[in-house]
Amino acid sequence: MANPRQSNRAISGRPRPSGTPGLSSDRLEVEQQRLITANVSPAAIPIILAARRPSTAHIYDSTWKSFLRWATKHHLDPSSISVVQLVDFLQEGFASGLSPNTLRRQVAALSSVLSFGPEVPLSKEPLIRAFLQGATNLRPPVIHRFPTWDLNKVLTSLTKPPFEPLQEVNFKFLSFKVSFLVAITSARRISELASLSVRSDLCIFHTDRVVLRLDPAFIPKVNSTFHRSQELILPNFCPHPRHRLEKVWHTLDVRRALKVYLSRTSSFRRTEALFISFQPSTMGARVSSSTVGRWLRATIATAYESQSLPVP
Known about the structure:
One of its GO terms (molecular function) is DNA binding. Residues 1-27 are annotated as: Disordered. This protein is 47% helix and 4% strand. By secondary structure, the chain is mainly alpha-helical. It has two domains: 27-138, DNA polymerase, domain 1; 151-306, hpI Integrase, Chain A, CATH 1.10.443. β1 and β2 (209-213) form a beta hairpin.
């Protein structure tokens, strides 16, 4: 059982240097002040602050702003919040429908700017641990049952209109087909697909395959030398078709599809990123990983619709 006195200890933060009550709304500024207080050298601080991925930093910033709004609403000084009060913040989030995983991310975010000391991270506080465990027991993770789809049905559709002939189809269906073929032959994350490049040293065509490499500026989910240096080696498929069926299969050749894609998009390409927008307002610009994801889902939907099948 947690010690009541311990649970009511104030969480330490770094007040704004101007003397204004509370903490800065800029989480990065608060974290920087904590590092300064800990006597971390000025040269090391920006390196430490760069430890998190941009997406993680965005989540942390959003959580911090939400926490400050909550503290203001309850007339609390965020620089002297107790564990009990922090549990109240988590409770309000739980009552509003936040999942236990989201609450854990909130604790991780607040740990970057609030703590009891270097030896007691927020996630290890008994009351917080008990609350998160209770939240998980009361609201266990939902098991998502995604609709299944048949790869053979999609591949069959990719050999016919509206995805063929590849030299004539509009850029939307060209983009759908090429991104889908690269996705299924590489089995890579969507974020990695969006970071592929057409630079000559990152997109290399051989007679029997095409080798794709990640943009050096891209930070993968697992940021290691091994993961950053991995190549996508995509072999060709029925390169010399003779019979009717082989000619059909050759339309699924990812090397052929990439060749056509690069040729047809060269006139309006505005970036070295492999996948580019076909929308008039952003024609030729780099697309995000979420857009590539939408293309893949749209490919499956279009494939089913073209065969008069219910879309999964």
